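INTERNAL AUDIT FORM
Audit reference: QA-55
Scope: verify that the stored structure record matches its stored sequence.
Auditor: D.O.
Record contents follow.
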Amino acid sequence: MIENKHIRSFLRVLDLGSFSKAARSLNIAQPALSQHVRKLEDALGTRLLDRSAHGVSATANGRDFSTHAREILTLVDRAERRYRRGTDEIHGEIRLGLPGSVCPVLAPPLMLAAAEKYPGVRLQIFELMSGDLAEYLREGRADIAVLFNVHETDDHTSEALLTERLHLIGAADAPLVQGDTVDAQQLAKVPLVGTRPPHGLRLVLERWSSDAGIALNFRFEADAPSVLVRLASEGSCYSIVSKAAIAHEVLGGSIRAAEIVNPPIQRTVCLASSKRLPPNKARNVVFDLTRDVALALLSNSRWAGASSATGVR
C-alpha cells in the first residue's frame, strides 16, 4: 500500500539529493527514511532512485512518478485544509520560483502581503536561474514562476508584468559606467561576465547583440547572479544586469551602473502559472497577488530600471 509519508520521503530525498539531508529535514532517522523509499518502490514495482557515492538521483521512472507524487500530495493537502478549516477560507501550499535578479525586490513585500491577506495559504518562495524555473513549471515542481520574454506554452501560462532596461555594471572607477548612460557601441569587445545559454538573460543579450550588430565578449560565464556582480565590482570585467538586481550595491558604492542606450537592451518580466498541476484556488489568488505587488512596486518607483510592459518579442 502506498502511504503519503512514503511519497513525502521520496520527494524530499529527490529534492535534496541526499538521504542524510532529507532525514534531517524531516526530523526522522535515516534508516526509517530509507525504509519509506524502499516500501514505495516495492509497492510500485520499480526502482525510483539511483544511489551512488556522489548522491542520489531519480531514475526515469522516478522522474515520471515525481510529477504524479506532487499532484497526489497537493490534492491531499488541499482536502485536509479544506475540511479542517471550513470551505470559506482559501488554503494550500503554493511554490513560487523567482530569478535571482527579481527575488530581492519582489519576495519580501509579496510574502508580507500574502501572510496578511491569505493566512491559510503557505507560500514557499525559492530562487533559481530563469531557465531552470521553466523546467520546474514543466515538471510541476513549481506552481508559479517569474520568467523573462516567454509566451504561453503547453506547460505554462504567461502574462507580461513590466519591462526592465538593462544596465552595464562595473567597479566604482570603471570608465564606461561613470555616466548615467553608456552608448551600446562602446560595449563591443568589452570583457564581460554573463550567464550561460540557455538561461534567460544570456538569450536576451545574444538576441540583442545579433539585432544591433554589436559583438559581445563573454570572457567569463557563471550561472550565479552574485558572481556576476562580484567579478564586475572587482574591476576584472563588466556585466550586464537589471538595475533592480544591484540596487543595494549601487547605493553602497561598491559598483556603478549605466543604462545601455542606442539601442537599449530590454527584457519583459513575465508571470507564469503551471498547466501541469490540477486547478487550485490558492494558486489563482497568489498569482493575482504577485501581479498586484509587482505593479505596485513599479508605480511606486521601487522596481529600479523598470517601466510598463511593452509585450514579449
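Auditor finding: record pair retrieved intact. The radius of gyration is 22 Å.
Action required: none
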